[in-house]
Amino acid sequence: AIISIVVEHFIDAGVILGVLLLNAVVGFTQETRAEKAMEALKRMVAPRASVRRESKVREIPTREIVPGDILLLETGDRVPADARLIEVSNLKVNEATLTGESIAVDKHTKPVSEEAPLAERKNMVYTGTIITYGRATAVAVKTGLSTEIGKIVTTIQEVETPKTPLQQNIRKLSQYILVLFLGICALLIVVGVLKGIGWLEIFLVAVAAAVSAIPEGLPAVVTVVLAIGMHIMANRNAIIRKLVAVETLGSATAICSDKTGTLTLNEMTARRLYVSG
Prior knowledge:
The protein is built from eight helices and seven strands, in the order ααββββαβββααααα. It has two domains: 2-38 and 161-250, no CATH class; 48-155, Calcium-transporting ATPase, cytoplasmic transduction domain A, CATH 2.70.150.10. The chain has helices at residues 2-6, 10-42, 96-99, 148-158, 165-195, 199-213, 217-235, 245-250, and strands at residues 48-53, 56-61, 70-73, 82-94, 105-106, 124-125, 130-142. Helices cover 45% and strands 17% of the residues.
């Protein structure tokens, strides 16, 4: 855009700046939607919980729970912390948020090997899981980001997205063009000096060569195409966090995903009601 302004190609400069602004707006909008999705994941923790402290039962905000608190859990409760069960009564827990298993798991207080995988730790309940049947008393052992669901949130936030094929190809093309441009500039300088041309004129010729050699419209076109694809997917309730991910997704031939809790809610929903009379 700067080069276009220097050589007085104001229309080209305006188009490039407009596309950059569009890219920023679309990116901000999608980032906001993605962050809302992340917040929804964090809200899987119950806002308040019943605990026993100093022989008294209290209802406190989940954020105030600390390891060692005695949790009182009943049917319908969302577990507020990772906890070790000490008393159970016909306890069943839905752990679909962690394991993807839609069937409620029976829990007990018997010892389990420390090396047992998460799905087989029957004497533990985990943050975000739901008590579907029975009641229990448990000791909180992990809270906040130290919990299993907290580790998932942390991992999602720390993921470094690799360069997409489109980004890699554009980067290679840019490097080739840069090398070509530098070579042309060196040649122009040598020829200009030999012919006694002034430095200002050599500079203007080099800028003109850059404008003609660099496809400044390519990023704009690519951005517009990806933005259109992102808009279409957003209308179909598909959240795209990164604009360049649209191109990668378009190259995919097969997508493997967990079903329960990801593509489905794991909840029974009444669609129609028939009554007689």
